[in-house]
Design a protein that fits this description.
Helices cover 61% and strands 4% of the residues. With 596 residues, it is mostly helical. The strands form 2 sheets. A 3-stranded mixed β-sheet has the order 3-5-4, with helices on both faces. Strands 1-2 form a two-stranded antiparallel sheet. α1 runs antiparallel to α2 and α16 packs antiparallel against α20. The longest helix is centred in the C-terminal third of the chain and has 34 residues. The two termini are 49 Å apart. Zinc ion (ZN) binds next to α14 and α15.
Length: 596
Amino acid sequence: MSLLPFGKLPAAKPRSFVPPAIDLGDWPQIAPLFDRLEAQAARVNTAAELERWLLDWSELNAALDEEASRRYIAMTCHTDNAEAERAYLHFVEHVEPPVKPRQFALEKIYTAHPRRGELPGVGAPGTAPARLPKAGQAPAAPGRYQVFDRDVANHVELFRPENVPLETEEAKLCQQYQKLIGAQTVSFCGEEKTLVQMGRYLEEPDRALRQEAWELVAQRRLKDVEQCEAIFDDLIKLRSQIAKNAGFDNYRDYAFRQKGRFDYTPADCLDFHRAIETEIMPAVREIQADRRRQLQLDTLRPWDLAVDPRNRPPLKPFAEVDGMVARTQKIFSQLDGELAAGFQQMQDLKLLDLANRKGKAPGGYQSTLSEARVPFIFMNAIGIQRDVETILHEAGHAFHAQATRGEDLYAYRGAPIEFCEVASMAMELLGGEFLEEFYPPGEANRARKTHLEGIIGFFPWMAVVDAFQHWIYTHAGHTRAERQAAYVELMDRFGGDVDWSGWETMRAHSWHRQLHIFIHPFYYVEYGIAQLGALEVWANSRRNKAEALQAYKAALALGGSRPLPELFHAAGCSFQFQAAAIKPLIQLAGSELKKL
Ligand SMILES: [Zn+2]
């Protein structure tokens, strides 16, 4: 029995470098391919041969990537299957570790290659060296290798052997944090519950009950304050040293480079935070005041933020997952013929595993089978509105993968996260226009309202998480008290009108639960940037639906082949984070909310 929901999927392009019968789970069979690439590089004499070499390398990357995805998909679809688990762990433990240094060796060979500077787009960014195509050869796009070259060179330049053991230390600390947080449980209504499980009590209409649940969780979190602070102190020390070793003054500047953020700066992020404060906080306060009035309360407390303000039962968009798929298909049919055909193809090829069932990993994701160049969507639908948002979101990612199918350079079939999430978040909004496929009109509006309020409410928390880290890593040698004061100041700026009295210590440490701050430093603003882009695509579609969708699809088709601002511009977005850019988007969201 195959553990994969889909059948045999042919490669988008027949292999010409990787042997057809190779076992990609067996490192001794893979290693010779890296040897061959190294040997071939030494024989490359022209730019065209170097391009051919890059395509061989791409083919190997795609084959390895697809092998990893297949094992991951099989494992997450069958968590109770020992063979699926073994196959996945084998790849993670015995293939990925030896692959990593070999990949890095190829990157070094590429950056040192004498023909590198002759590739179009390499050398002078934006200005492609004039190069006439040979007869019968398609002309390479101007700047073709600009982004690829920039990313590879950056990776090679930042590498320091002395940072390897520090990064291992860092990973261990992150794991300690996860262990600490994962072990947090409370006893509620006679049962031991994880803090994630406790989340649903915050939607409980009985206020006393949800207060009790919230306080119990807060008390449990407070027990680990000291340990979280200690782990974090050690992380800051390590990260500062890593940055210093790589020649940076502070970890913030290092992290920006390490994440390949060539197209926006720390100053842009600080602008973004200020714009959220002036342009979005008034809307957040309005939503909170609205909630407070509907709940008939004098003040909003931290446990009043997730319950439906009119105490209605949860929305029920569908009973069966087949119905969800059929209705989603109808939404895409109304949106765009090409996207509808893409989703239909996923159904035909069984590239969807959407129903929640026993023996399936939690959550949802979109994965790409890189050789077949087709997307796969995994989720755990149970019949709630969140499922509808998730399928639209993941379908947006899937459309992105489908749009880059014709791209032969593996690196360009994926885009930076800032733009990937435009593809998905824009689809939540564009598809959200047709929620009547799932609901009668009143309920469709309720779903849209919750969704829009969620989008607006995300920005301030994003600003807190990001601005706090800017402060942390640019204030070397700060004390815990100073760090706490900096955080409380941010909560004052971005927390809105929520009454935390009696729980000030909890409020001052509420960042301890945000795993990104510990484990993925500086990884968060991406979602804010993408959400702005998504709102802009949506705003464009309000003016001219066909034109907005055309631009959206054209931008998706660029994959990762162009720098971020160009991807945004192609999609009809500005890639601006200042107040002037945000104001019209929030006005649109605000006026829309008033109609719902
Ligand atoms: Zn996403």
